[in-house]
Amino acid sequence: MAGWRRIRDIVTGGLIIAVPALMPSSALAYPIDCAILLCMAGGFPASAECSAAKAEVIRRITPWPVEPPLQLWRCPLGISPGLPVGGEGTLPPEIAAYRDAIEVWHLAKHVTSGSGGRDMVLTTVRGTYDASGRLVRQSVDEEDWPAWLDPAVRARTGSTLLNEYGPSFRAVVLRMRDHTGAYSTEWVSY
């Protein structure tokens, strides 16, 4: 829990609003990326703010990862305007750890049957943040898949990635870490 509080203090500049009922509602508003960071650190707990933050993350990464899921340059983090946000050494280590633990996987499996047997086309692309804070996408071969990926596919499709008798599908899988160090995945079919 202390890790989450540290993230909250960094994002809010250490200010804790004691009497929110007396504050105008606009003073309580966070940029969506600050909400994404806070909610991700908390494991996306059930709340209107975290539901909106999670929906924004999913919008950004589907149907193809067209935007980085976490855009820290949009969250002030108590850093002076004009300074780069997100590059190596510019983020507090607690924040960088959340960003660096994010993986966005684009998975596509197409299986067809014909007179020559079954054909399968498989695409696996992983997006991760590099040291400068950019989301970088690269194709990943079977031998480089992480151990958690195939069980996640099996849980959603009933088959493994390489099983030619499994169903065709397209999905984006978001993997992230919360303040306890536990990983979670979000599967979005499209």
First-to-last CA distance: 35 Å
Unreliable parts: 15-28
Tally of contiguous helical segments: 5
User: Largest beta sheet: what is the strand line-up?
Assistant: 3-2-1-4-5
Summarize the biggest pleated sheet. Answer: 5 strands, antiparallel
Q: What shape does the CA trace take?
A: elongated
Which structural category do the helix and sheet elements fall into?
Answer: alpha+beta
The helix/strand series, from N terminus to C terminus, equals HHHHEEEHEE
Helical amount: 25-40%
The count of strands amounts to 5
What count of domains describes the coordinates? 1
- The value of Rg in angstroms is 19 Å
Strand content: 15-25%
* Mean of residue pLDDT values: 82
Secondary-structure blueprint:
Elements: H1 2-12, H2 32-41, H3 48-61, H4 93-100, E1 103-114, E2 117-129, E3 135-139, H5 149-157, E4 169-177, E5 183-189
Antiparallel strand pairs: 1-2, 1-4, 2-3, 4-5
Helix pairs in contact: 1-2, 2-3
